[in-house]
Amino acid sequence: MTVCVKKHTIFSNCSQETIKMDPSDQKFFTVIDYVIFAVLLAASMGIGLYYALSGGRQRTTQEFLMADRSMGCLPVSLSLIASFQSAVAIIGVPAEIYTHGTQYWFIGCAYILGLFIPAHIFIPVFYRLRVSSAYQYLELRFSKAVRICGTFTFIFQMVIYMGVCVYTPAFALNAVTGFELWGTVLATGLVCTLYTTLGGLKAVIWTDVFQTVVMFAGQLAVIVVGVQKTGGVADVWRKVWEGNRISGLDLNPDPTERHTFWTLGVGGVFLMLSLYGVNQAQVQRYLSSRTEKEAVRSCYMVFPSLQLALALSCVMGLVMFARYYMFIVCFPQMVIYFVMDMLHGLPGLPGLFIACLFSAALSTISSAFNSLATVTMEDLIKPQYPAMTEARATLLSKVLAMSYGLLCLAMAYLTHLMGDSVLQVALKIFGMVGGPILGLFCLGMFFPWANSIGALVGLCAGLVVAFWLGIGSILNRSTRPLPLECGTNATIAIQTAFNNTTLSISLFFSQPSGLKRFYSLSYMWYSGFNCTTVILIGLIISFLTDVMPGTLYPLLGKLFCFLPEHLKKKLCCVTPLGQTVSERIDLIAKNLPVLNFLIFSSSLCITQN
Ligand SMILES: CC(C)(CO)[C@@H](O)C(=O)NCCC(=O)O
Ligand code: NA
């Protein structure tokens, strides 16, 4: 039987011990489970149809892409958390906690600044400019070329990401339960494409609300049943404690250390900023809010729900560890195995979890489709055809949403050809492509003297360095063995399973040096590192191409002192006479980023009022 064979391949690498439950003739799904899964798809379709037929019937781009800018903060906040919380996190985080302990949980610290900064810096700028796409900002601030480069970078990021999102749950489910792989990919991809194309952003946001609730319910069910079946809270706690899964605060400053407080709590802030500050999927939700206040409030409300999502997936990892602590390695598929092990025989609950998994995936890819349609329409097509009628633009937006839906299926196939820890893959994409985009926006918002050439060169350089680092890290992966963070039980398991070889290998392990050390930079720093590259290169190029008054020593001006004043100013970039050194220093000091941001945003306030 296929189910049985597939299960054995999953565990053959983990340990020579066998699992107590005999999976051979396990029937995972009853009719009611399939019904629940079908209800999820049907309800999502229903919401899509409802918004296709109510309101303005999706006849303007304002409604289709911006939800008429009429949303309240509750649906927006639930939709915000749904955008980047996919099945990747639901499967990946428990696997991470199982293997490496609760260190990853410290990413929750990054949510504080990672949401506070978007709420008070990015939202006001975008909202007051009344843009439809975040990239419109780049044209207002720099030039059309920067806008188009930013747009293409974003499209690239989201297209790869949505492939991972739609493939991950289908693959994991298939490996464990034999659920048809490509059938599931097709069903989710097509249903999502349909309701996104029919109902526009309103449907996307309201399905997100419904799907986020289902997502929480599914995770909660697994935890409750799991704790019961593992012997209660005290027993789970004892096992994870003995198994050394409860990690303390790791303050190791080494940037190559994968997860420490610094990489997660500080590097994570940049990751959050690239997602919640400047990513079009999120910016579009802020912009769809009724008022700016409502947008800020929705961003605040993301904090508790995101903490809840993180806590649920971390606790699930711990319960899973308490159940299978004798296995050393944990594959993402093992999370699904654990869920099925817990929920089988409880009709409806396996179905609820499948619904949870696909809710997470659907809510992410629907956001991707709609935001991709928006940027393609607003940034690439509309500027070329300014005379296009509203009806035609709306039709075209729908065609775009649908095309991206079909492209997503193609990307799922590409993901099929890759292979890594899915959580790491998703977070690497955010850092490698989202990091440089964040840098571009920071360059624009915080550095008044940054210019268009600086921004363009900065973005390109940032992307090149990002890919150099990212690809380098993949090619050099094998040089550094996974850290062995094992407790007593796990250590015994290693010794019996591998006859001490694993432990002796770790003794030969030494710190990488030179370029290898660069490649082993923790992926949690990717966003911050790539963002900084763009800002630094952008500033240097801006200085070289556009001289800031007061930043040059007027050497040429002194040589050509015989020239008339106005010529000297032009030829030699000499600032008006009489400026003392201290005045120049003042001028530079005035350009300190924070100070300038204040000036910039207050000037925005003034132009608004
Ligand atoms: C975006 C974060 C890091 C926020 O906690 C989290 O949702 C996450 O780990 N997401 C992984 C990507 C995904 O779930 O598709
Ligand atoms: Na999601």
From TrEMBL:
Chief location category = membrane
Q: Where are the transmembrane segments?
A: 31-53, 73-93, 105-127, 148-173, 179-198, 205-227, 259-278, 299-318, 352-375, 395-414, 426-447, 453-475, 523-544
Q: Which Pfam families match?
A: SSF
Membrane topology of the entry: Multi-pass membrane protein
- Any one GO molecular-function label of the UniProt entry: symporter activity
The record ties this protein, via InterPro entries, to: Na/Glc_symporter_sf, Na/solute_symporter, Na/solute_symporter_CS, Sodium:Solute_Symporter_SSF
Q: Which Gene3D superfamilies match?
A: Sodium/glucose cotransporter
What reaction is this protein's catalytic activity?
A: iodide(out) + 2 Na(+)(out) = iodide(in) + 2 Na(+)(in)
Which superkingdom? Eukaryota
Statement: the UniProt record of this protein carries the keyword Glycoprotein: yes
A Gene Ontology annotation in the biological process aspect, one of them, is: pantothenate transmembrane transport
Localisation: Cell membrane
Swiss-Prot/TrEMBL keywords: Cell membrane, Glycoprotein, Ion transport, Membrane, Sodium, Sodium transport, Transmembrane, Transmembrane helix, Transport
Give a GO cellular-component term: apical plasma membrane
PROSITE patterns hit by this protein? NA_SOLUT_SYMP_1, NA_SOLUT_SYMP_3
Family to which this protein belongs? Belongs to the sodium:solute symporter (SSF) (TC 2.A.21) family.
UniProt protein name: Solute carrier family 5 member 6
**What is the organism field in this record?**
Astatotilapia calliptera (Eastern happy)
